[in-house]
């Protein structure tokens, strides 16, 4: 039995409204499809993924200038994970037993996060897969950092630690620093340093893709104080140069912040996280030392025997003092070549230099020590 369409009487206004609703729904569906595709750049993009960190913090101009330069030609997929504050001299320390705060940040057009931890924390977290959707980047760059990282100073450097952590995780890495001169260098030198290091970065990415980039070390790159007048690129050896650690006794009366100097370098979130633990520890200490008398002294040393019934409390502050122009240094050492105006490229590995010789020396010593023939 056939049914005529004319028998289905519908209000013309209702039909028009339904048609408009269907059209809008179709448009929304198309827009959703486009948006979903846009949300998956790392899956669809064939661009090399680069992770950038630093030691001076997320707001460092060197970091911003480097990221903007890497994004300029739209050839790289750049991500940033950097400390929220300056951690330049934290070495390769990592944070355990504490919760790190991670917040989104604005660094150019890169996908960026700031972390309440060290550069090593930032790289480890970024490469863990917990923060970014990609499996791992093709290259990790720690930079651009202000201040040379040469010789034994690399052991104190948070910037170098960021690159070293990447190598530990199996990702090629570069640490890039400008030989910043206090009261002489300016932000334009940072821009010039970025210009100088970009060809090295591009060469590294190209050779990583070809499989011919060195995989047993990371490169510590130093940019001279006047980047654009550099004398060329020189492969250098790590020197034994070390900044002098200058300790000074300070008083809370003369400098009220001295007692809290270290904690002030940390974020308010970390300080609050420590509050409960410190309060418990302080209460325990008060019970233990209820009969002891606290005495603050400003002198560097204490003469005579220390009274066991009182607690001596002192405050000290350390500064790094860098010596320049050291004589009798070979031309191919990092600090000498950098001061001479070269762009230095120093390979740094995870294994100690001369391991075979060191092992042999220790074996010979141990054999004699245990034989009793000394």
Automatic annotation (TrEMBL):
Domain Survival protein SurE-like phosphatase/nucleotidase: 50-242
Record keywords: Hydrolase, Metal-binding
One function term, GO molecular function aspect: nucleotidase activity
One protein family per Pfam: SurE
InterPro entries listed in its UniProt record: SurE, SurE-like_Pase/nucleotidase, SurE-like_sf
Family, per entry: Belongs to the SurE nucleotidase family.
Record-given protein name: Survival protein SurE-like phosphatase/nucleotidase domain-containing protein
Organism: Psophocarpus tetragonolobus (Winged bean)
Organism classification: Eukaryota, Viridiplantae, Streptophyta, Embryophyta, Tracheophyta
């Amino acid at each position: 039995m056939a049914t005529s369409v004319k028998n289905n009487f519908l209000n013309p206004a209702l039909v028009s409204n339904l048609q408009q609703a269907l059209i809008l729904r179709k448009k929304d569906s198309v827009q959703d499809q486009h948006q979903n595709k846009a949300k998956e750049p790392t899956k669809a993009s064939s661009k090399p993924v680069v992770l950038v960190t630093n030691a001076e913090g997320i707001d460092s101009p060197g970091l911003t200038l480097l990221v903007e330069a890497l994004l300029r030609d739209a050839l790289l997929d750049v991500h940033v994970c950097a400390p929220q504050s300056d951690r330049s001299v934290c070495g390769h320390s990592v944070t355990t037993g504490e919760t790190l705060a991670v917040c989104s940040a604005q660094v150019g057009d890169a996908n960026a996060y700031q972390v309440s931890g060290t550069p090593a924390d930032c790289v480890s977290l970024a490469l863990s897969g917990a923060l970014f959707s990609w499996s791992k980047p093709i290259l990790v760059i720690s930079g651009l950092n202000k201040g040379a990282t040469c010789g034994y100073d690399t052991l104190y450097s948070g910037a170098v630690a960021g690159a070293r952590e990447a190598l530990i995780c199996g990702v090629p890495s570069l640490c890039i620093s400008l030989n910043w001169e206090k009261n002489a260098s300016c932000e334009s030198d940072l821009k010039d340093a970025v210009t100088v290091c970009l060809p090295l970065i591009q060469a590294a990415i190209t050779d990583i893709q070809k499989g011919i980039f060195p995989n047993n070390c990371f490169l510590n790159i130093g940019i001279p104080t006047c980047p654009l007048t550099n004398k060329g690129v020189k492969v250098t050896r790590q020197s034994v140069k070390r900044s002098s650690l200058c300790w000074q006794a300070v008083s809370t009366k003369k400098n009220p912040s001295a007692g809290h100097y270290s904690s002030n370098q940390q974020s308010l979130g970390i300080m609050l996280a420590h509050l409960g633990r410190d309060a418990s520890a302080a209460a325990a200490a008060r019970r233990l030392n209820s009969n002891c008398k606290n005495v603050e002294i400003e002198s560097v040393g204490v003469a005579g025997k220390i009274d066991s019934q009182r607690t001596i409390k002192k405050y000290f502050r350390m500064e790094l003092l860098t010596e320049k122009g050291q004589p009798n240094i070979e031309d191919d050492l990092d600090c000498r070549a950098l001061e001479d105006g070269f762009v230095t490229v120093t390979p740094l590995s995870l294994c100690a230099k001369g391991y075979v010789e060191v092992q042999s020396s220790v074996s010979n010593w141990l054999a004699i020590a245990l034989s009793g023939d000394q």
